[in-house]
Amino acid sequence: IVLLIFRDLPDDPAVEWDTQLLATLVLKHIEAKNINLVVTFDAGGVSGHANHVSLYAAVRYNVCRLLWVPPWADAGSSWCCWCRVLVLESVNLCRKYISFLDVLISCLLPRDALFILTEEETEQAKRAMRCHRSQLLWFRQLYLLFSRYLVVNSLRLL
């Protein structure tokens, strides 16, 4: 199954993943690990990254497909009865790169959950990003300096 994932789900910002395949893999993982909360990207994928958008589509596919459980069905047979989904809000380019200044804006706008990272948590996230040298291109260096996502994250229930 690992070979299938690497071949059919490549880490590539230009490749859209197969919704049904990914939905199946995600659902199997949720059921196997008894997960009750999924946090994923919204339809914008934060940066338009095709893999992120595909992940949202797969999770949404599962939610829409399993949202209604007929009265005669076993309630335990559907993840929607016990698993909630939060999606990370994609914001416009200006808000995306104003770092901590977006905290005030985020506090004023409607959302279901708001996470404001401490300075220590922000530094931990930056250290984690720096561990992935192959991913740390020049524009991600700017991301580390200016991104609001390293300081504040607003989410909504799917």
TrEMBL record:
Transmembrane segments: none
GO BP, one annotated term: GPI anchor biosynthetic process
Domain of life according to the entry: Eukaryota
Documented EC number(s): 3.5.1.89
A GO CC annotation given for this chain: membrane
GO terms assigned for molecular function: N-acetylglucosaminylphosphatidylinositol deacetylase activity
Family assignment from sequence similarity: Belongs to the PIGL family.
Protein name per UniProt: N-acetylglucosaminylphosphatidylinositol deacetylase
